[in-house]
Amino acid sequence: MLAGLCLLFAAFTAAQLIALSEGGRHVLATAGLSYAEYARSGFFQLLAVAVITLAVLLLLRAATNLTSRGQRATFTAAAEVAVALTLIVVVVAVRRLNLYEDAFGLTMLRLYSELFSYWIGAVFVLLGAALAGIGRGRGWFVSASAAAGLALLLALNVANPEAVVARDQLSGTRQIQRTDAVYIARLSDDAIPTVAARLPGMDPVTRADLRARLCRGEPDSAPRSRFSGWAAWNLGRQRAERAVTRICG
């Protein structure tokens, strides 16, 4: 069963790598796919492969009676091949997302999808280590995977993800040159100082549109707290209010 899974994944990853060898743009052109469809299909293929591989490896490891050293070595080798092929699928899925981002820029959903793909990759690196016998006798795999996810969330919060998205949207390096002023103006207070700092370098039309949206406040922007007083103080909100006052005052 494990050998059949490896053969199936090997054929799948070979097709993915061939399609990716030209950056995926040939596939987009010949198949009539949009960047969004191409990235979305790659992400859900990654989820399917990850779930199947994780379930099969854990079930086979628990149910198979590996009595001899040769049996254990054969199972470990086949399992490590399956893990390696899954990591290739992770790389392909991230590259598909990167093509989408190169064309249209980051959004919060695209950023979270890419980071989730990285976390899946980290989980399978840990799974490969566990299958290789590292830390044998200790049930560390689940806790280590959860810790990796929590560490990623902590790093994401420290990095200010909405500011990262705003910075990328306003970088001016998109292949399809289009600044989504509506989306940028609807980001939360955490993004506003970054947007305000980038306003002087924008083209006049985009600058005027974005400035007008920030100054009047977008109806669909992130809701503000209904509480007041010292307990409701928020550093991001304070920085945003200062930035809006500077560009609108």
Descriptive key words:
about 250 residues; mainly alpha; 2 domains; about 0% strand; elongated
General description of the model:
The protein has 249 residues and is mostly helical. It has two domains: 2-159, no CATH class; 163-248, no CATH class. 73% of the residues lie in helices and 0% in strands. The longest helix has 36 residues, at 69-104. The termini are far apart.
Q: How many DSSP helices?
A: 11
Give the % helix: over 70%
Determine the mean pLDDT.
Answer: 83
Principal-axes shape call = elongated
Show the helix and strand layout.
Blueprint: H1 2-20, H2 25-31, H3 35-63, H4 69-104, H5 108-131, H6 141-159, H7 161-169, H8 181-185, H9 192-198, H10 204-216, H11 235-248
Helix pairs in contact: 1-4, 3-4, 3-5, 4-5, 5-6, 9-11, 10-11
Give a quick rundown of the structure.
With 249 residues, this protein is mainly α. It has helices spanning 2-20, 25-31, 35-63, 69-104, 108-131, 141-159, 161-169, 181-185, 192-198, 204-216, 235-248.
